[in-house]
Amino acid sequence: ELGWISKVYVNRPAVVKHAEEIKRWRRVKGNWQAAWLLKAVTCIDLTTLSGDDTPSNVHRLCFKAKHPIREDLLKALDMHDKGITVAAVCVYPARVTDAVNALKAAGCNIPVASVAAGFPSGQTPLETKLAEIKLAVEYGAREIDIVISRSLVLSGQWE
């Protein structure tokens, strides 16, 4: 049921005011800054969405996902034993198996995400979108980033 979408109201002046307030917030410094930056790394999906991706490209990306920060920097922050990794590795459905195997071989449990449903434009038939999502999940993707049709959004056809 998508009727609620037509009822969504955004208080634009309030959003703009809050955005301006955020710009005036005091910056985080010192150890807190390092802590926030390390936390930000753990929220990142490390992604490769290149038309010429190969298994070796994906393998290198997975290594970087497990080791996103240089070891000497982590040791300097006394964070070398905290298991700092990115949140996920994101690849096209055709590369999901490569990513799953590389991460398994590296002995880590970083989830694999996959773009699907006609990424990046969303301009594929619904049946194709669903088949692509199904295959990505069968290959081992634990997250699917989908794309909705921009033309439908721009014309207000939310259903």
From TrEMBL:
<dbReference type="GO" id="GO:0009264">
    <property type="term" value="P:deoxyribonucleotide catabolic process"/>
</dbReference>
<dbReference type="InterPro" id="IPR013785">
    <property type="entry name" value="Aldolase_TIM"/>
</dbReference>
<dbReference type="GO" id="GO:0016052">
    <property type="term" value="P:carbohydrate catabolic process"/>
</dbReference>
<dbReference type="InterPro" id="IPR011343">
    <property type="entry name" value="DeoC"/>
</dbReference>
<dbReference type="GO" id="GO:0004139">
    <property type="term" value="F:deoxyribose-phosphate aldolase activity"/>
</dbReference>
<keyword id="KW-0456">Lyase</keyword>
<protein>
    <recommendedName>
        <fullName>deoxyribose-phosphate aldolase</fullName>
        <ecNumber>4.1.2.4</ecNumber>
    </recommendedName>
</protein>
<keyword id="KW-0704">Schiff base</keyword>
<dbReference type="GO" id="GO:0046386">
    <property type="term" value="P:deoxyribose phosphate catabolic process"/>
</dbReference>
<dbReference type="GO" id="GO:0005737">
    <property type="term" value="C:cytoplasm"/>
</dbReference>
